[in-house]
Specification:
The structure holds two protein chains of two kinds. Chain A has 13 helices and no strands. Chain A is an all-alpha fold. Chain A has two domains: 4-219, no CATH class; 227-273. Helices cover 75% and strands 0% of the residues of chain B. The relative contact order of chain B is 0.06. Classes of the chains: A mainly alpha, B mainly alpha. At the A-B interface, helix 6, helix 7, helix 11 and helix 12 of A face helix 1, helix 7, helix 8 and helix 13 of B.
């Protein structure tokens, strides 16, 4: 398993999710998520014909009460207590932890976003492990899957505060590999991807990824691109040499380049399996 | 596993597989096998295989998934399967896939409409344009305009395909008007170097090259070719930087550049440009004879013929004909390669040329 998938498999949320799913009370939590999905489906406002079907921000007053009603709990309390800050004795702690500033409704919505996104993330990691994907490949797939999630869960993605599930922040810290600035840039890219889909739900995952592709590429000077850069330079050089070598390189430079190219030829031949230099 | 979980997992896996499949052929793993094995877990392999689609291994009790997830993965399976088929044989596979899901999804299901668009695009790629195809594309465009909005992503995508249809049908002026407007819209919305805009601008350059080829006088030919060259010179560095120099999009720009230079009479530069394009195409396609490699050989044959190097011209024309006829024996590119090869062979001294 490549190290990136191993590290993504060990985040706080990954551990929380495994523990929560293995719990006997997971079924009741799932009832609440299902009820939320049904409530949000009903509240989707159909777009006007020929107008862009942008998804507006969603907020449902008294959401926990509505969920309790929809999921056939006897009162709001069984739902509320699952997502309140004080968690003593709960089989599944809330993802948001014991911070009392985070209200139960916000903790519930935040968790619902994570749980809905998790299968998309898992699908990416399955393939990343199977094909030994590089960090940049995995990141591209992650961002595309995030767009696919937003498209499939428009109202949830648009629920206040609109944007990706909170777990992307720690995932981007993994991709940032200790570089806080890079992790913050990547987290912003995740938000842009989701907001692009909310602005135009017909946007494909590739289209949404393309919106941030340049910014993401700049954060990852991929070693594999060295071959591309050398190839590009060689192509440009040979193209321009046809129009007058004296304007581009002097005699010393030409000799140096020739020696370098000859040296490189031997190494490349070995690397390509054509045997070493004669 | 619940249906929504299985669907999400498929979407995630499909996006990751789509990333892996862009690796150069030499480093591309058996993505198709993986995708087929995954699909077999979620559709009835017996019915699928009976429909003449790429064979799936049989699995008991497939887990149901949403129509969109099933179509997404099935499209990937068919796409990967078709990479090894000649262009002429691909539309039939896509039509079978469309029929498979048309029996299972409502006619106006968005995923079915997108699949229909893809199937029509394959017809265009195979040069099979008919009034029926254009009518169908117009219906799809109307659907996306109405459901997603006039300037939505999918409406724009369909407009681009419709422009390609007009181009193939020979209505270059209509195609140019459509793609020109679309390029402006995308530039305004996404910026000039957004990948979505670059595709449209590249299509516009291609169209200008065709208009140059069809122009009756040199002034017009040069005017169209110069416009195409200006566009390509602007978009190629962006594509090189974004995708890498040997990626198909970057190489396509290089080929268009060589084509424009050929039409402008700058033969040395055209030759260098096309030789590079050929090198990069081979790197990416692993020496496979893709259709675009055939097109590059055809352009190189024309360049060498114009330079008076009949030996090289005949060599490239022969290679072009061999590749293009394997893909689309009735295509215009193939006919051009055959005509050029005949013309070169008929020149005095042709027997000694090789």
């Amino acid at each position: 398993m490549p190290s990136i998938t191993r590290r993504l498999d060990a985040t706080h949320t990954a551990q929380w999710y495994r523990g929560a799913r293995g719990s006997e009370s997971w079924g009741e939590r799932q009832r609440c998520y299902d009820a939320l999905a049904a409530i949000l489906d009903e509240r989707r406002v159909p777009a006007q014909p020929y107008e862009r079907a942008a998804q507006p921000t969603v907020q449902v007053p008294g959401i926990l009460t509505e969920v309790a009603h929809r999921a056939h709990f006897s009162s709001r309390e069984p739902v509320y207590k699952r997502w309140r800050a004080r968690q003593a004795g709960r089989q599944v702690p809330r993802w948001a932890g014991p911070d009392s500033v985070i209200a139960p409704a916000a903790a519930f919505i935040g968790e619902a976003k994570i749980v809905a996104f998790w299968p998309y993330r898992a699908g990416v990691l399955d393939v990343a492990a199977a094909f030994d994907m590089t960090v940049t490949e995995t990141l591209a797939a992650y961002l595309r899957s995030l767009a696919a999630w937003a498209r499939d869960h428009l109202a949830l993605a648009a629920y206040l505060p609109p944007g990706p599930p909170a777990c992307v922040i720690e995932d981007m810290e993994v991709f940032g590999a200790g570089d806080g600035t890079r992790a913050a840039c990547l987290a912003r890219s995740c938000a842009v991807v989701v907001m692009s889909v909310l602005a135009d739900p017909s946007m494909t995952p590739l289209g949404a990824f393309n919106v941030v592709r340049d910014e993401v590429s700049e954060l990852y000077p991929d070693p594999e691109q060295i071959a591309d850069r050398v190839g590009y330079s060689l192509a440009e050089l040979s193209d321009r040499l046809m129009h007058g070598v004296e304007r581009l390189v002097d005699a010393d430079q030409a000799s140096w380049l020739l020696a370098a190219v000859n040296e490189l030829q031997g190494m490349l031949a070995a690397g390509a399996g054509h045997g070493g230099p004669p | 596993m619940r249906t929504d979980e299985a669907s999400g997992r498929i979407h995630g896996a499909a996006e990751a597989l789509s990333v892996v499949r862009t690796r150069p052929r030499a480093r591309r793993p058996a993505v198709g096998d993986y995708a087929r094995a995954l699909l077999a877990r979620h559709v009835d392999a017996g019915t699928w295989n009976a429909a003449g689609l790429p064979a799936l291994p049989s699995r008991e009790n497939p887990v149901p998934v949403s129509g969109e997830a099933a179509v997404r993965l099935a499209r990937l399976v068919v796409y990967l399967h078709c990479l090894d088929l000649p262009l002429a044989e691909r539309p039939a596979v896509w039509e079978r896939l469309e029929a498979f899901f048309a029996d299972r999804l409502p006619t106006s299901a968005p995923e079915l409409v997108r699949l229909r668009l893809r199937a029509r695009y394959e017809l265009l790629d195979a040069g099979r344009v008919s009034p029926g195809v254009i009518a169908s594309l117009n219906e799809i465009l109307e659907f996306h305009r109405k459901v997603h909005g006039e300037d939505s992503y999918l409406a724009g995508l369909t407009r681009g395909d419709l422009s390609v249809a007009y181009r193939h049908s020979g209505d270059l002026a209509r195609a140019a008007a459509l793609i020109d407007a679309e390029a402006r819209t995308r530039t305004q919305r996404f910026g000039p170097y957004h990948p979505f805009t670059l595709v449209t601008r590249s299509n516009l350059a291609r169209l200008l090259l065709l208009q140059a080829e069809a122009a009756e006088d040199q002034e017009h030919r040069h005017g169209f070719a110069q416009r195409a060259l200006d566009i390509v010179n602007d978009i190629r560095p962006a594509r090189d930087r974004r995708y890498g120099i040997s990626a198909p999009d970057a190489t396509r720009s290089r080929r268009y550049e060589g084509h424009a230079l050929l039409l402008l009479g700058e033969l040395d530069r055209a030759r260098a440009c096309l030789e590079h394009a050929l090198t990069f195409q081979r790197v990416h396609d692993g020496q496979q004879d893709s259709y675009t490699i055939g097109q590059t050989h055809l352009l190189l044959a024309r360049v060498y013929a114009a330079r008076g190097n009949r030996s090289q011209a005949m060599d490239h024309a022969g290679r072009a004909w061999r590749i293009l006829s394997a893909h689309l024996p009735d295509g215009t590119d193939c006919a051009q390669a055959a005509d050029l090869a005949r013309e070169l062979a008929a020149q005095p001294g042709a027997g000694q040329a090789r």
